[in-house]
Amino acid sequence: MKLRTFSLYYLPVVLWMCLIFYLSDQDKQQSTNQMGLFQWLLSLVFDNPRQLIKGTPGLLIRKAAHLTEYGILFLLLFRALRLHLRYTAAVVYGILGCALYGLTDEFHQLTVYGRTGQLSDVIIDTAGAFLGFLIHRVASMWNFPPISSNRHLKLKVQRK
Length: 160
Known about the structure:
By secondary structure, the protein is mostly helical. 71% of the residues lie in helices and 0% in strands.
């Protein structure tokens, strides 16, 4: 595999998985403190994000984070898998890969102080992957550029 192909397609998957691992390695207090980052992100969209967060249970925010993390992971993984697999196979393996990574992530959380691994989180992670697939399908229907495009890797053929 060429370095360029790895850098453009597989490295983002690995880096995103590392970020998920880092976030799940935080103990409960550190995880709660990260709500400030989420509040800042919400302040970019809403006038009073503290009021919004105060009215929203922290559990709901955490589950939305699971959906988002694994939706993005699916999109990155699908993009890399499309280099080698047909569309349907890339979708199936992408969702299965996210589910398996979610399972290993929950096992990892069993070893982190103050955290628990829950099967319900694996289901939410898998739903996030499926949500990523749905986002891809909707974007495809609206004729956005495909995320699985590898046009820049194709050789230009010169005609004589």
